[in-house]
Description:
By secondary structure, chain A is mostly helical. Chain A has helices spanning 2-36, 38-75, 80-100, 112-121. Chain B is 68% helix and 2% strand.
Amino acid sequence: MAKDGADDDLKAEDLAERLRALEARRDKRLGRERGEDGNDDEGRKGLARAYKVAIELVAGVAVGTFMGYWLDKWLGTSPLFLVALFALGTAAGFLNVARSTGMLAPPRSLDPAETVERGSDNEKKPGES
Amino acid sequence: MAGPLEQFDIHPVGGTAQLGGFDVSFTNASLWMVITVAAITLFVVGGMRQRALVPGRWQSMVELSYNFVSDIVKENVGKKGNDYFPFIFSLFMFVLMGNLLGLLPYSFTVTSHLAVTFAFAAFIFVGTIIIGLMRHSTHFFSMFLPPKTPVPLIPIIVLIEVISFLSRPVTLSVRLFANMTAGHILLKVFAGFVVSLGAAGGLLSILSVVPLVMNVALTALELIVAVVQAYVFALLTSVYLNDAVNLSH
């Protein structure tokens, strides 16, 4: 019995070693493959990021301009709010871009009790969003 | 030959209907939404029918989708997010299935219409505001004022933050809609090249293989985009929910 157990252990170790070697070989092969068409993948990711940034920026400007247009229409102050909110909307667009690309962390809550409560039931760092 | 935009046409299926002056016909968009829901139901209920301790292939796929969304919610909202998991799971599955079914020939992509994606985004947006107000009452509005803002800047900063907040449903919906629409137009345009080059005759007919190969590659890319956009949609919903639930802003 004891001898059989030792045999099994040996086999298991052997198997683990072979698995490791196999995985290392696979990683190496995948790594090389990734290297070959890495440019393509990088381009696709770059394009996706460019889309994201463009939409974030345009959305801020569009929402600001839209608000300004309707405020002007409602209050009859054309083009005061359109101009002002276009500028602020552009600022909001840049804020969106800065936040979505991680250049700027979102502001934290003022209330320290809130932060503590959040920290206790949420492993996530409050800075990331 | 069909134009590249014809695939987005909405037309009634089986007669038109009016209700209170509105057109409430059952359209091809409605039909594909019903098919999407039916496919999800079949996938999830069918996969879980055996409830095996060691899951088979099908059950494994269902469990993987469940875990995937569950991880998104846990990582982004924390424990309090459990209440909203069913909603985010349904949302993810609907967008994912809608995107994937849209890749089938002769199908209709429900997520390629801004009306559909914006309806989702607006619902999520209003929902997060209501949740935030319910959990934090007026303190919720403190998210528009970053701490330690110099007093003279407060009006401008608050306005910018409000506009930035209001642009959330726009970015959420436009991203999904633009990705799906752009991809499908591209597929159709290249498919059009195949047909017109093939019909040209002679050497040009041989050249029609080039856009065909391109279309195969694009279909693979669209498959990735379909999954990634469903993931992004669920992820951003969780992030926005987190702002309302945990008020980290």
